Amino acid sequence: MDTCKSCQLVRRRDDGVAPPWDSIYRGQYWDLAHAYNTSYLGWLVLVSRRHIEALDAMTAAEATELGALLREVSLALKKCTGCEKTYIMQFAESKEHPHVHFHIVPRMPGQAPEDLAYRVMRRLGVPLSEQCSEAEMTQLAMALRERLPSLRR
Questions:
Q1: How far is residue 31's CA from residue 125's CA, in Å, rounded to a whole number?
Q2: What's the confidence (pLDDT) of residue 42?
Q3: What is the pLDDT of residues 28-69, one digit of tens each?
Q4: Residues paired with 85 in a beta bridge
Q5: Is-contact 90 101, C-beta < 8 A?
Q6: What is the mean pLDDT of residues 86-115?
Q7: ∠30-35-20 over CA atoms, to 5°?
Q8: At what angle do helices 134-147 and 60-81 cross, to 10 degrees?
Q9: Taking a C-beta distance cutoff of 8 angstroms, is the pair 152, 26 a contact?
Q10: Residue 44: helix, strand or coil by DSSP?
Q11: So what's the pLDDT on residue 2?
Q12: Helix, strand, coil % (nearest 5) of the chain?
């Protein structure tokens, strides 16, 4: 879809012009990227490579790859960030992103109470001055790549 930002970002990855933090892993059905508008380093998104707007539109193969990736990405985040666990959320309700994608967010030790559980969403869609730097996201992306299964490019 031309108006879907997620589809635009998938095309950018397909064209090979995405920065490393926006193309951490490319599977057969899913792309892994760092969220571009967060103040929380390690906030990742698993994005369907195909435009679908609801989970029930996934194929069995897409669901199988998704399940394995959710586990592998959570393990890699633990190793790279020292998080205690990961939060995983899926909405596909945003006007810009009606496309199925999963937020995978590291839950850090000693995380502030105002950032626990669903409240962590306040760290997404923040002003540019509060967003993680491209250098930080790229450094984490490179560390994650080393810990994920063989990459497809």
A1: 20
A2: 97
A3: 999 999 999 999 999 999 999 999 999 999 999 999 999 999
A4: 107
A5: yes
A6: 93
A7: 70
A8: 110
A9: yes
A10: strand
A11: 77
A12: 40, 20, 40
Name the residue type at position 7.
C
pTM: 0.92
C-alpha 29/C-alpha 92 separation (Å) is 17
**Inter-residue contact 88 to 71 (CB < 8 Å):** no
CA 15 to chain centre: 19
Side chain identity at 106, as an amino acid letter?
P
Closest CA to 101 of 66, 65, 141: 66
CB hemisphere CA count around 130 (13 angstroms): 10
Is-contact 25 31, C-beta < 8 A? yes
pLDDT at 153 over 50: no
What burial letters (b/e) apply to 109-146, b meaning 16+ CB within 10 Å? eebeeeeeeeebeebbeeeeeebbeeeebbebbeebee
Query: Which two tokens mark 76?
Result: 């890699």
- Residue type present at position 110: G
pLDDT, mean of residues 66-90? 96
